[in-house]
Amino acid sequence: MKKLSLLMFSAALLLAAPAYSNEMTGLDIMKLVDTRDDGDDLIQNMKQRLIDRRGNVREREMVSLRKDYGKDSKSITYFLAPSNIRDTGLLTWDYDGIEKDDDQWLYLPALKKVRRISSSDRGDYFMGTDFTFEDIKQTPELEDYNWTLIESKLIDGHDMWIVEGKPKTDELKKNLGYSNTRYTIRKDINMYVRVDYWDRKGKELKYLISEEIKQIDGVWTAMKGTMTNVQSNHRTELSFTDQRYNTGLSDRTFSERMLKRGYRAK
Amino acid sequence: MKKIFNWVLTHPKSVLLMLVLTTVLAVSQMRHIHIETDMDAMLPKHSDAYINKQVLEERFGSVDMVIIGIINDAKDGVYNTKSLTLVQELTDWLAEQPQFRTLALNDLLSLATIKDIRGSDAGLDVEQFMDGVPESQNQIEHLKQRMHEFGLYEDVIVSADGSGTIFAVRPMPDSRHQYAEIYDLVKNKVAELEARGGSERFFISGRPVIEGVFGVYMPAEMKRMQPMIMGLLLVLLFLSFRTARGVFLPIAVVLMAEIWTLGTMAALGAPIYTVTTMLPILILAIGIADAVHFLSRERLLAHHKAYAHRKERMVEVMHELWKPMLMTTVTTGAGFLSMLASDLPPIRDFGMFAAIGIVYALLITMLFLPAALMLLPEKVKHAERKPLFSGYVRWLGEAVLAYPKRIMAFFAILLVISVAGIMKLDVNASLVDQFKPADPLRQADKMLNQHFSGTTSLDVMIDTGRENGLLEPEFLQHLVDLQQEIEKNPMVGDSSSIAEFLQTMNQALHADDPAWKKVPDSSDLAAQYLLLYSFSGAPDDFETFVTGDYRQAHVRINMKTDETKVIATLLESLKDKTDLWFPADKGFKVEWAGTGFTVHRLSEMIIDGQVASLATSIIAIFLLCWWMFKRLLIAAIAMIPVSLAVTVNYGMMGNFGVPLDIATALTGAMALGIGVDFAIHYLHRYHEESSAGNSYRESVINTNRSVGHAILFNSFVVIGGFLVLLSAALYPQMKLGALIAATMVICYLATCYLFPVLLGLGKEKIKV
How far is A96 from chain B (nearest CA, A)? Predict the structure, then answer.
């Protein structure tokens, strides 16, 4: 009897071991997610589907170009549809950290003018979607949250980390609009497949599901992301196609001049 | 019939048991009773005001908000660091309460959440007016100036003179049952802020608050009035009978009738509306009459020892009384049932359950009283006391015969004054006016209306019939025109639409040049502006003004009053304009909604229902009288006192400026149904007197002597019962109480004074 229990104990230790072997903390994991290879630059087509609680759908199509500059990045997005906003373009210079506000310019073809847009709060919703400006970044600002590894488990055949991130201060909670977030991260590719959000009052607010994860040009890429707000029953589906990584986009691509010129498919 | 009576009398215990069981059943149902405080539920479900309200919420997420106002009468108004700190604190507090939904900007509007749109050479800035509490005088001046220049929120969020600012916050969906708690929650917070002793005063209003208060008032009113009316009945019964059984048996009858009625309402799922809270009073006051008739007759026969056995005596009483009691119940019931001609559920329910209640009262009287009297020990002595007022009743018979001309003149003058009054009769379905002028809620509403754009919502939804239709410059210009037309009305505080915002953005993107404050000249430009805004402001900022496909637009109007007249005038004046600017043949569709529109439709239905139910009740009661008396002329005469009383009722309303509303609209049919009983009793007796061969003079005197007292008692109970309503917390109930009481006085006078004179008309005198 004694032997058996000893055996079981060591078996349990053995099973538990992988999770603790490398002593990963929540922050360590999030750093892995943050530094995951997502290409140095990217061109992709994007389709936005906004679905309200009655099932009405609003669609927008755009083409988006991005280039990394160390931890900063620049991106330019041209709207293709609907026709009344065709050729409208958005240029963003995104700076790492929170010290410097991002720069944004918008080109309105009907006005034939480029306009600078004041930077938004991180908790503001982005373009009528269910994503906030914070959400559309690849990873949140890691230093603003207290990260905790909750558990490791097997979901849909993948080993996952469940990491919880709570904004550090009340001020941050107010700015971000969240009291808690929870990331479900695939261990094999350091990529999150689901994020749950709780509002300032501690009520479940929304969740993001990343699907159709494939390797393109060697970069793991989610072809679809759906954010569902459980309070308003509003949903945003983003689907991405025609990704091309590391094509060597020139710096000139991310300028006001190019914004005005509009997108020309090569 | 006699067989049934005999069965009742030989099985008194079974009868009592049956009654008790039914009562227990009714009580068990009563816990299902629910109170309806939703003002829109007063409308029938098929009414466009009811439907459009749902559409408005569905399409534009526009719902009724709780409104809190801060007013500071000090020199700088709310533009000082201390007041603004309070604004920030209260805003943060509201955002944290789980009772409120604060997902989007439009869920919580306050000086600390609204956004400014400003142009610069380089671009467009959309930012909060207040990013944290401004501390320096410069910052405060800047805030003040921006608020004024931006304009859209001036008078809406901050009063034009800066003396006050408001908060509008959205309760969680489906939290109607919590409105009273929400009001308490906000009241407590506000009291806490006020206790700090600043010069800021706080006011709370808004539809959810008003409905919450109604929800608390209604059951409280019922509980409070019940003992009052019971006390009144006890006194009147004691004065009439001076025995324990004479007091408690009738009380037991009407209490049972009341419980049965409420039980029936609960079982049928009928909610309690503000007007149906008066049902218990009505059933107590009217139901008691049958029991009193029964007991007096029984006592009279017992006194004369007309029958050897009490069972025979009971049978005689029951046999004698069931027909007239049934008649009066039927005519009164007809008066109430005529309310079914109205489209408004509260009025329909009131009429139906009042009719059911008096039928119950009759049934219980005929079952419970004989059974109880059989079981109670037989009294040895039956001392007959002279009823009170017998001196008056006797005098009356003579007096009426002495002064026919003066009586005729009196009623003729009354009629003329009343007809003049009817010309001035008004209708007002205002929700706020239901509260007494001194009620804190009405005071708060008044203050908010004085300082801000108004607490009553009126909404126009315009469907352009095609996707992106509302972005067309022509349409946007017509929206601007419509708003200008609407704002010409002095009682309109403000209106807002997407066109206003697009004008402001157009100006902002042209270096804030006021010359550019006009709608964008192309549909594409409008679409691009809205996209641009969505990068800076929250996109849902506009969800209340446009649908996602840019097909439907919403113009929100804030009114300073919800009085029927004002709203009817406004709607009337806009009809031609909307037909011209948004023609149906080009695919446009214009729909109205909001509290103002609800009130408008309510008023129309009150008037329509009023005419229909009056006409129905007059015809029904007339036909019943004709059938009862078998002569057209007598039926016509029977209608005279009630018709006169009803005319005087409406005349009084016109003369004293009491408008028709959801409660006072009940008075006509109600007075008719109750009042006609007097005439039936009187004519019945007069008929018997004159058939016995008495002369006109003798008949009048005898009739007065015998039924004069019963009619007087009846009048006292009904008048007294309705006067209890003078203590009601809600205005319409109070007015209804006073009106019915006054109308019953007229009805009594017309029956006992005018009838004999009328019957004496003509050389031959009228034979009944």
Answer: 20
